[in-house]
Write a structure and sequence with these properties.
five-stranded parallel beta sheet; 26 strands; alpha/beta
C-alpha cells in the first residue's frame, strides 16, 4: 500500500546520497508548464512501457506526484501491481509543493539545458550569428557546418549545406578536423544546448577553429534566412585514421579527467547480480549500430541525446552509469559530460562492445523494444474485434470508438468516427462524457498495446462492454480501410506531446523558447 510523503520528506530524499526516483505522472505538456526541479516526466500512459528501464530494481524508493493526488494515487497502484515495493505519493502534489513556498521550474530537460548555458558562460564558448555564417558561406570555401542533431531531425531541414554528424560522434572527427586548421568549423543544433556542448567538446579535444551557431536553426529562421528542407545527404562516416586516433584521444581525456574504467568481468558481474542497486548500461552509438549488435540489457541513447536528455533516461539518482561504444571514444566523451553535470558514479566499459563480444559475452541484435509490464496479463482478459468486423458495424451509432494513442498519432491517422482521450485520463474522465457503462466501447491506438491496457482500466471501473481493435490503427490500415486525420474529436486537451518550436515552426514560440534557455544560465 502506498504512503504519503511530505514536501520536507521529498526535499530530504532529493538531497540524500541514496537511490531514489521522483516521477511527475501528469501529461508531458503539464510537466513542461511547471514541475518540481530534478524530477523525471513519466506520464501515467507510459508507466508500463518505461518503468523497467527507468527503475530496473523494484526495491528502489519511488515518489510520484501530480497536481493533487488523483493521478498519482492511480499511478502508485499501477506501480505496486508491477512489483514496485516502495512507492510514495507527494502529499498535496505540485499544488502542495507550491503552497509550501518551494521552487518550481518550467520546460523539459531543464537540468541539461541549464548545464549547457553554464558551459557556454564558464568556458566562454565562441559563437557565430546566423548573419555572419551566411556571409561566411558566400565568401569562403574553407567552411564546414556540422549539424549535431539526430538524423531524424536533420532529415526535416538543416542549415544549407550542413552535414549531419550527431553530437556523440564528434570525437571520431576530431583528428580529421585538426588536420584542416584553416577550415572554419561551425556546430549547430535546433537551439542552443547541443551546439554549445558540441563546440565545447571539440575545444576540449584540442580544436580552436570551432564555433557554435548562435541559437541554431531557430536563430537562422528568426534572422529571416531559409533552411534547406529534406536534405538527401547521409551522415558520412568518419575517416578511418581519425576514428583510430579517437581511441587514443579518449584514453588521454579519461586519464586527465580521472574517468574510471570498468572491466568486462566487473560489468558482467554487476549485471548478473540481483542486489547491485541500480546500473544503467547506456550505449551511445547510433541506432543502426545498436541494432546490429549490443549488450543485452543496455539502452540506446546516442551521445548527444544522452547529454541533452539525461533526466529522461537516468531517473534513479546516485545510480551507477556505464557508458558503452564500439571501443571507448564516444563512451568516454559521454562519461566526461555526465561527470561535469554532477553524476557521481559514472564509468566506461573498458574495450567497449568489441572487447565484450571478442571474449564471448552475450550480444543481442535488433531494435530496443520493451514489452510493457503487465501487458500479457491485460491481453489475456481483453476482448478483441478485428478491423473488418468493426468496419461492418460502424453504422451502429451506439458503438463508441475511443483512441488512446498519443494525440500526435491520432492527428496523423485514426479510425473514422473515433474520439481521442489520453490513457492517463480515461479511467478518471470517461464517465463524465459517457456515463452508460453498458455501452459498447471499442478502444484503438496505433498497435493495440495502449488500448489493451486501457481496456483493463475501464473494466476495473465498471464498464462491461469493452473491446480492443485487434492490431490497432495499423491493422485497420493494413486491411485497406480508410482513416481520418485531425484533432477535432478530442475529449480532453491534447497536451500529452511537447514538440520543439523548431518543428512547430512558429517564430513567436521560437523566440520565447530561446529566451527561456538563455535565462537558465543567469
Amino acid at each position: 500500500m502506498s504512503t504519503l510523503i511530505s514536501c520536507r520528506g521529498v526535499d530530504a530524499l532529493m538531497t540524500s546520497d541514496g537511490l531514489f526516483a521522483v516521477f511527475d505522472v501528469r501529461e508531458r505538456g503539464e510537466y513542461n508548464e511547471r514541475q518540481i526541479p530534478s524530477t523525471t516526466s513519466l506520464p501515467r500512459s507510459q508507466i508500463e512501457f518505461r518503468i523497467s528501464q527507468l527503475v530496473p530494481n523494484p526495491t528502489v524508493p519511488i515518489v510520484v506526484y501530480d497536481e493533487g493526488e488523483i493521478r498519482s494515487s492511480l499511478a502508485a497502484k499501477t506501480l505496486a501491481q508491477l512489483g514496485y515495493a516502495q512507492v510514495s505519493i507527494l502529499d498535496g502534489g505540485l499544488t502542495g509543493w507550491r503552497k509550501d513556498g518551494r521552487t518550481t521550474v518550467s520546460g523539459v530537460n531543464v537540468s541539461s539545458k541549464a548545464f549547457g548555458e553554464r558551459v557556454h558562460h564558464e568556458r566562454s564558448i565562441p559563437d557565430i550569428s546566423p548573419e555572419e555564417l551566411k556571409a561566411l558561406q558566400a565568401r569562403s570555401a574553407s567552411l564546414v557546418v556540422l549539424d549535431v542533431r539526430t538524423p531524424e531531425e536533420y532529415g526535416r531541414f538543416c542549415i544549407p549545406n550542413g552535414v549531419n554528424v550527431p553530437g556523440g560522434d564528434l570525437i571520431l572527427w576530431a583528428e580529421e578536423l585538426k588536420q584542416r586548421p584553416d577550415t572554419a568549423v561551425v556546430i549547430n543544433c535546433a537551439g542552443r544546448t547541443r551546439s554549445i556542448i558540441g563546440t565545447a567538446a571539440l575545444r576540449r579535444l584540442g580544436l580552436t577553429n570551432v564555433r557554435a551557431l548562435k541559437n541554431g536553426t531557430m536563430g537562422w529562421v528568426l534572422a529571416g534566412l531559409e533552411l534547406e528542407t529534406r536534405p538527401q545527404r547521409k551522415s558520412p562516416p568518419a575517416p578511418p585514421v581519425s576514428r583510430e586516433k579517437a581511441v587514443a584521444l579518449a584514453a588521454r581525456v579519461a586519464a586527465e579527467e580521472k574517468i574510471p574504467w570498468i572491466s568486462m568481468r566487473q560489468a558482467s558481474s554487476t549485471l548478473a547480480s540481483m542486489n547491485n542497486g541500480v546500473t544503467y548500461l547506456i550505449d551511445v552509438r547510433s541506432e543502426s549500430e545498436y541494432e546490429a549488435g549490443h549488450i543485452l540489457g543496455s539502452i540506446n541513447v546516442p551521445g548527444g541525446q544522452a547529454v541533452q536528455r539525461a533526466d529522461d533516461f537516468v531517473a534513479v539518482r546516485n545510480a551507477q552509469i556505464i557508458f558503452i561504444s564500439n571501443e571507448s571514444a564516444r563512451a568516454v566523451m559521454a562519461a566526461y559530460w555526465y561527470r561535469q553535470m554532477g553524476f557521481p558514479n559514472v564509468s566506461v566499459l573498458e574495450g567497449g562492445l568489441r572487447a565484450w563480444s571478442k571474449h564471448g559475452e552475450n550480444v543481442a541484435k535488433g531494435a530496443m523494444r520493451n514489452e510493457p509490464l503487465g501487458f500479457e496479463a491485460a491481453k489475456r482478459t481483453a476482448r478483441y474485434v478485428d478491423a473488418q468486423t468493426l468496419h461492418r458495424g460502424q453504422n451502429d451509432s451506439s458503438t463508441l470508438i475511443i483512441d488512446v494513442g498519443t494525440s500526435l498519432e491520432f492527428e496523423s491517422a485514426h479510425v473514422r468516427g473515433a474520439k481521442w482521450i489520453s490513457r492517463g485520463w480515461i479511467d478518471i474522465k470517461l464517465k463524465g462524457f459517457f456515463p452508460d457503462q453498458n455501452r459498447r466501447i471499442v478502444l484503438s491506438c496505433p498497435d493495440g498495446r495502449q488500448s489493451t491496457l486501457a481496456a483493463r482500466s475501464l473494466t476495473e471501473i465498471g464498464y462491461t462492454n469493452v473491446s480492443v481493435l485487434d492490431g490497432g490503427v495499423r491493422g485497420w490500415s493494413a486491411a485497406g480501410l480508410p482513416t481520418e486525420t485531425g484533432l477535432d474529436a478530442c475529449l480532453v486537451e491534447p497536451n500529452d506531446v511537447v514538440l520543439s518550436p523548431s518543428v512547430r515552426g512558429n517564430k513567436e514560440d521560437m523566440q520565447c523558447y530561446l529566451e527561456w534557455e538563455l535565462k537558465l544560465g543567469r
